[in-house]
Task: structure prediction
Amino acid sequence: METNQAMVPHSLSARFEGSFAYLTVKDRLPTILTKVIDTIHRSKNKFFEEHGEEGVQAEKRAISFLSKLRNELQTDKPILALNDTMQDVEDWNQYMQRQQALLGDSEPISWFKSPWLYVECYMYRRIQEALKLNPPISNFDVFKEGKTQSFFDSQQAIISLCTYLQELIKTVDKISEKQLHENFLKLLQVSLWGNKCDLSISAGQENAQKTSPMETLHDLKCFILVDDSDMVWSTLMSLRGSGDQDKSRARVDVVLDNAGFELVTDLVFADFLITFGLAKEIRFHGKSIPWFVSDVTKHDFDWTIMQVMAANHKWMSMSGAHWKRYMKEGLWSYHDHPFWTLPHEFCDMPLDAPDLYSTLQASDLILFKGDLNYRKLTSDRDWEHTVRFEKALRGFQPAPLCSLRTLKANVQVGLQPGQGENLSVQNPNWMTSGKYAVVQFSSPHQKH
Ligand SMILES: [Mg+2]
Result:
């Protein structure tokens, strides 16, 4: 909502020279575009086999569109209206006008003058436009190769995680409350650190989980800057039937971030919640188009479950078989909504995607994975680190929610006085290195 515009800090933007936003727009985004162009180019033979000469022509046109896009970005040209036939075109073009109105009429909005959140989302949407405008290759996922690779590169970690899960499931009838709590914290943290495996921050460079995830948890604990895990736990416990494990009333929504190892950690955590009676239903939310290099689409979601099921490892394939059954029985479900791939701050959701907002209001707990969700939760603004998380949410409070995020962008709220300053001394890149993380909770029922 734009009503409090004057009350909130400015949006992070490439107009602040030397800032992380500036470096991202200047260096990282063009690198990603170059890789996309290369991927399309390398797929030329595939397009020819599938669509003949028409496929090759489409490949050429898409590449020339994207080269032009890269040039627009690098020379700070005006942001252009979208021009394809996807259903969100009107939303994007209205948002563009909104941004123009904020800047005033003196100059057109451009890549380095606009909010970073907006232009970064816009770049991914323009990549989609390049494909949508060239029909035979419209549905090509330029990031699929990297996502697939990151899954296979994490095989050992996935095996050890699935083995841990299946060993744990054997104890379901005799597990003590204390052990349940301990394992809840462990698997929540695995899902948290799974968020390190992000291909957009490394501009598509390999970024897989190579070590055993359970063994590193203890050493990583000191890098969790805010840890509200126990509020997540008590939220779920309060919805649990007394004494009877099967009676949880909790519906948990997981707003996913990345495919590859991270998605597996999310599925393992979700399996744990269902199996141990901490949730009765899990709804996963993913992207409807390829997004931020490694984000989960419906195809990635289904593919991952199939791959885990088809693995040549007893506990891994058993995990996959469980997950397929949860999907079939509706205990788990996958949803996408165009709002997740719009540039809007989440406080805009009640007005700009009221259907999604009311869906989320029916949830008992929403887990927001990753950095982009955090940036949208906090409107990607230059907040003081000590500002309360609730304040940075600017009224976005559909249900109890928790951000599970490793820090990869320079926005972080809810810290103790002095905490941010100390971190800056110890490690100047603390907000962008992915080394630190938060488990940050907020509830509309909370008393302040
Ligand atoms: Mg991502």
